[in-house]
Amino acid sequence: MIAKRSNPAVNRRGLTFWGQWLCAISLVSGLLCYLVFQQFGTVSAQYRLLIVITIFGSVPAYMLLHVYHKKHSYFAGLGHLLAGWGALLSGLLLIAYASESMYLFSLEVLARWALLGFVIQAIAYIPLRYFGNRHSRKLRTERMSVIIGSGPTAYNLAERLHQSNRVPMVGLITSKPGVRTLDGRFPVLGDLSKVRELVDQYGVRRVYIALSLDEVAVIEDIYTTLLDLSVDVVWIPDFGRMPLLNQSISQIEHLPAIYLNETPLSSHPAAVFSKELMDRGVALLAIILLSPLLAGAALAVKLSSPGPVFFRQPRHGWNGEVIHVMKFRSMRLHDDDTVVKQATRDDPRVTPVGRVLRSTSIDELPQLFNVLKGEMSLVGPRPHAVTHNDYYSDKILAYMARHRIKPGITGLAQVTGHRGETETIEKMQQRVEQDLAYINNWSLWLDIKILFKTPFTLFSRDVY
């Protein structure tokens, strides 16, 4: 079970973007200078400042709207160019309005610049796109690649290279003679004894080593052999079914280091500070706004059956520390310390008021106070009872890795249909996989999306 993690390299901008951006921004800057000089005979300081702001503001505007993306058709590319130019102009207008500096500029000059600026960029886009595509095709022909390996990792890599169509792959070289691929789609060119001949025969310029861990001893010999050839060598480690968490590659004093298991708190401390700030701020605001609902629910619980209003249950928090999670009591008093028993449909322990609270998730709202205390987060893996953790920890791989970050009131598992009772090991494993995927792909934007999706999952039939 390996939780999926998005590839940050997918969104990186290369020379194709920067080359076209540089050409376009030079054209619009030159156009503005020409229009101003034609109107006033000189380019005054405010217009020079406008050019500087345009240059810096165009970068985020064009990046966010995916201007000059390689996969766009000509018409789609022009549409994104128009959107990026419009966003840039809107930002400039907002800055001018906020600084009360509109009177410094000629509206006639700015209007002509806005219109002609897009026209001149659109005209330049066609040849720039043509030469960009031509350059990409040339690079592809110079990046002919081959994969050493024939196991699942090698096959997975071959599929990804084939789907992305960025690096042409001629086939696989096996470490053992007579090995075939899974479905025959990717040809086996030969074994390691013929690696030199195969590199020369197919004009290979990049070699991917994707061998299993039990074959790692031969990697040094392979690398030594390839070192004499004019090829780039890329090692794709095969970690099998190891559950990698927030994995990354770095250097420690010039030594290569692969981080197999790292918590977001240690790899993104600044971002986690922002998460903490958002959690406590939103929790405080929610408590204030929902105070009538909280008071009404508390009164209903008190009148429904004997016992306290709140139910405090020990659960594992961040780094496995035990915290006491608060909920409105929805069941009659019972001992849940030694028996692993989740709530089931028509559970006799649940009171009539508690059934309403559970079905609408109102019983979870007191956990806002746990968030305010810093014990929980708004979004994260749901905290399970300590007895549940003891039960599942030796039955599901990496189960306790869920506690590498703070537990949440809601989470990725809850908005992807993995709420309610987990009466089978398989269902709990699916929930754990979603939790690990959240850890691997965590970001503030992901938290925001989960928070927006949560209200639409509150009335799930699987919650009782």
Account of the 3D structure:
The protein is α/β, with parallel strands linked by helices. It folds into 3 domains: 8-139, no CATH class; 145-242, 3-Layer(aba) Sandwich (Rossmann fold), CATH 3.40.50.20; 269-457, no CATH class. The chain has 16 helices and 11 strands. Strands 3-2-1-4-5 form a 5-stranded parallel β-sheet, sandwiched between helices.
Radius of gyration: 29 Å
Q: Output the structural class.
A: alpha/beta
SSE ordering: HHHHEHEEHEHEEEHHHEEHHEHEHHH
Poorly predicted regions:
7-13
Distance separating the two termini: 29 Å
Shape annotation: flat
> Strand arrangement, largest sheet?
3-2-1-4-5
Helicity range: 40-55%
Mean pLDDT comes to 81
Quick gist of this model?
The chain is of the alpha/beta class. It is built from 16 helices and 11 strands.
